[in-house]
Design brief:
125 residues, alpha/beta, 3 helices, 4 strands, 38% helix, 22% strand, globular, transferase, 6,7-dimethyl-8-ribityllumazine synthase activity, LS/RS, LS, riboflavin biosynthesis
Amino acid sequence: MATINLSDYKPLHITNADEYTIGIVFSEWNDFVTYNLRDAALEILEKEGVKPSNIKLFSVPGAFELSFAAMQLCKSKQYDAVIAIGCVIRGETPHFDYVCSAVAQGIKDCNILTDIPAIFCVSYR
């Protein structure tokens, strides 16, 4: 879990983590952010004991597509959890607000409509 002081991070010590299968969907847009978030997620999952072979990566063009991909992964019931990683940067149009709202609602729907937890990891700037 993230804290204000990131050095306070304590590993979760997840029991039987080696048995979990995790789906990670990340956006290609703003890859200077999303690739770092993806790589950090992989590092933490592996440190917690998830086998690298049990982590499946999927990419989508942009943050808007995260909701669809995450829902498909959740509905497939092949994963114990799904992580959606993206980045939306504010410009001078309302596009930022539309995308942010749609992605947040879409990941929320994954959690409400399926039995698979979907983790919202979208950076907004």
